[in-house]
Design brief:
6-stranded mixed β-sheet, 469 residues, two-stranded antiparallel ribbon, single chain, alpha/beta
């Protein structure tokens, strides 16, 4: 059975990691004292025995850290980068503890710092390579029909179909679906080759006669009154049970749960920027980025300001009310690109192609998005962020909130100078719905790395806007 195989694999993983840690340490010692310092008359200040005595404490500490960082958890459906990040995290913590104990606790200053750096890099590299090779080997074995997990799906619903689809699309995960049980779909019905074996009542009969590794409960919403009974039967069988909720039509997003004194609470939407530490990191990045932008671009900003002033009478900076974080209004700054007009005329509609109100320099600024650069001051003030959903005017917000589902979700984060929608081409006169889909994806999947990626892409795809008039 798979659960027995998993125990064997975990033990092999631990043994392999112990061997890699010892090998990396020995190789780091060799590289430092026999290659880098080969010309030195003495090999290190301390004898070799003192260096390798450390392994008695280092190896078990690293194994414990690997467990704590979930390096040994099941990896069938886990993305490779998450596994590699866990390895890097464990090694970084291990090296930090090593340095603290060595230099602060026992105050031994004669251990080579360069050897520790080499060991740190070697151990991460060799461990990551071994995991990649092992993962490829296991996926090849599973795609050929070995080391499979046998799964029974209980309930026929949209969630069941989506679950089956994903398992069939990814044979390297090593899942084999034994069949489906459901009260409303006739026995013998096939869904992509997976047969409906019978009714929910057959569960107690089927479980003893099938070697199952998992049961996936995917009842439709209308059958949730059977959920407690089905879970009870599955729990008695001792087979690992999963619950796949059929609420995509009700909650069309990725929810997350929290523990409220033992009561599980499902939050409809996971917003990483609701976390205080993430807020601080992003705000610090905004302050540093906007300050650097203002300082470095100040001569260019002054040149653009002069061109705007010469092109037509009126102020250089155009202020317009937009809706920002928590649906609060703020004034967004832009270089003026149109002839000066009354506030009522400006509110009437978006700019259209060949709009006579747009000035000559204004067309260039709009096409290249350089008219947006004064928003660096909005970012410094805290009204906006370097990256986020683009802010809209209040009258359009009121309209779109009724016409487009989930439109108001974008106001859970600060609006941005650029965003995921913009680098994907959804700017100006493009689909609002697709723009919102991109914004929500960004909100739910935010990381600092994602922000850096969007800023990088903006330089190649975000400045020239073919949809700007």
């Amino acid at each position: 059975m798979i659960k027995d195989n998993q125990k064997v694999f975990n033990r092999l993983h631990v043994l392999m990691d112990i061997m890699i840690t010892v090998f990396s340490y020995a190789l780091a010692y060799f590289i430092k004292f026999y290659i880098i310092d080969a010309a030195s008359p003495e090999v290190g200040v301390l004898p070799i025995g003192d260096y390798f005595m450390v392994l008695l404490f280092l190896v078990p500490a690293y194994v414990i850290l690997y467990f704590l960082c979930d390096v040994y958890g099941p990896k069938r459906t886990v993305k490779r980068r998450h596994e590699l990040l866990a390895i890097i995290q464990a090694n970084t913590l291990g090296m930090a503890f090593y340095i603290i104990i060595l230099y602060v606790v026992i105050r031994e200053i004669n251990y080579s710092r360069w050897m520790m750096v080499i060991f740190y890099m070697l151990n991460i590299f060799i461990t990551c390579v071994s995991r990649i090779v092992l993962r490829k080997l296991l996926r090849t074995i599973r795609s050929r029909g070995y080391n499979l997990k046998h799964v029974l799906v209980v309930g026929y619903s949209r969630a069941a179909e989506q679950y089956i689809d994903r398992l069939l699309w990814n044979p390297q995960w090593g899942y084999k679906i034994a069949g489906i049980l459901d009260d409303t779909v006739p026995s013998g019905t096939l869904y992509k080759g997976i047969k409906v074996l019978g009714r929910l009542d057959n569960l107690e009969v089927i479980l003893p006669h099938h070697e199952l590794d998992e049961i996936a409960i995917a009842l439709p919403l209308k059958d949730y009154d059977n959920l407690e009974h089905v879970v009870s039967i599955c729990e008695k069988s001792g087979v690992h049970t999963k619950f796949i909720p059929d609420y995509n039509s009700v909650i069309p997003t990725r929810p997350y749960t929290e523990d409220l004194m033992g009561l599980p609470v499902i939050n409809i939407r996971y917003v990483p920027l609701s976390n205080n530490s993430n807020k601080v990191i992003k705000r610090a990045m905004d302050i540093l980025g906007s300050t650097a932008g203002i300082v470095l671009l100040s001569p260019f900003l002054l040149l653009l300001a002069a061109l705007v002033k010469i092109s037509s009478p009126g102020p250089v900076i155009f202020k317009q009310e937009r809706v920002g974080l928590h649906s609060k209004p703020f004034y967004m700054y832009k270089f003026r690109t149109m002839e000066q007009q009354s506030e009522e005329e400006e509110k009437k509609a978006w700019t259209v192609r060949d709009d006579p109100r747009v000035t000559g320099i204004g067309k260039f600024l709009r096409r290249t998005s350089l008219d947006e650069l004064p928003q660096l001051f909005n970012i410094l003030k805290g009204d906006m962020s370097l990256v986020g959903p683009r802010p809209e005017r209040p009258l359009f917000v009121e309209r779109f909130r009724e016409e487009i589902p989930r439109y108001m979700v974008k106001h859970q984060v600060r609006p941005g100078l650029t965003g995921w929608a913009q680098v994907n081409g959804f700017r100006g006169d493009t689909s609002i719905k697709k723009r919102i889909d991109c914004d929500i994806y960004y909100i739910e999947n935010w990381t600092i790395g994602f922000d850096i990626k969007i800023i990088f892409l903006t330089f190649f795809t975000g400045f020239v806007n073919k949809n700007a008039y």
